[in-house]
Amino acid sequence: MSQGGVANWLEFRSINHNGTHLDAPYHFNPRGKRVTELGLEEFVFERACLLELPLRDGELITAETLKTHAVAIADSDLLLARTGWAERYRASDPVRYGRQAPGFAASAGRYLLEHHPQLRAIGMDIPSAASPVGGEPNAEGLEFHRVVLRTGAAPEEPYLLLVEDMKLEGLTSTPRKVWIVPLLLEGDDAAPVTVLAEFEPS
């Protein structure tokens, strides 16, 4: 409007794996569901589990890491992995945040699918489930994606959605309900999301 227009507006261009975003099965499975093919119920979670998993540069969350939290995960439909990485580096050292981030090992995905069939999604405070250390992304992180997004599997077979680059810092309790609201673009393998949470009254 300062230039004489009748309104203010902007144009933006971005990849869909940017900021807080959801990876759907189609990201690693040509037969898998795209974001727009997921049911509305798949974006609502009522039994979240918040795990404190402090990690160093390039360190991986493995099956052994998660086995020590088996009781906490047992009834959960959403696993929130708080590594502290975003709190330490997202704002203060964005280069380190992106290039030295920890991630997940393939064994973690296999363990969760085999032992926690009630789980539907994993959220994390790191840029990607695949650490860039040792490759960009590294082989373990790629295989983790293949495992949980079920490369080669039929669409009806179980999978785990991934919500990467979540803002988990500052949480003092586990939310009692979480909504993941994606930007719906036809054909998306992934989408930027807004994550909303409801907490027990203090």
Question: What are the defining features of this structure?
Answer:
alpha/beta, 10 strands, 20% helix, 6 helices, globular, 202 residues, two-stranded parallel ribbon, 8-stranded mixed beta sheet
Textual characterization of the structure:
This protein is α/β, with parallel strands linked by helices and 202 residues long. Helix content is 20%, strand content 21%. The chain contains 6 helices and 10 strands; from the N terminus they run ββββααβααβαβαβββ. It is globular. The model has no long low-confidence stretch (mean pLDDT 96).
Main pleated sheet: 8 strands, mixed
What would you call the shape?
A: globular
Strand order of the largest sheet: 2-9-10-1-8-7-5-3
Name the average pLDDT.
Answer: 96
Terminal residue distance: 44 Å
Portion in strands: 15-25%
Number of strands: 10
As residue ranges, the low-confidence spans are none
The total count of helices amounts to 6
Helix content: 10-25%
What is the alpha-carbon Rg in Å?
17 Å
The helix-strand sequence is: EEEEHHEHHEHEHEEE
Based on secondary structure, the structural category is alpha/beta
Write the layout of secondary structure elements.
Elements: E1 21-23, E2 44-45, E3 48-52, E4 60-61, H1 63-67, H2 70-73, E5 78-82, H3 85-89, H4 94-99, E6 103-104, H5 106-115, E7 121-124, H6 139-148, E8 161-164, E9 177-182, E10 190-198
Parallel strand pairs: 3-5, 4-6, 5-7, 7-8
Antiparallel strand pairs: 1-8, 1-10, 2-9, 9-10
Helix pairs in contact: 5-6
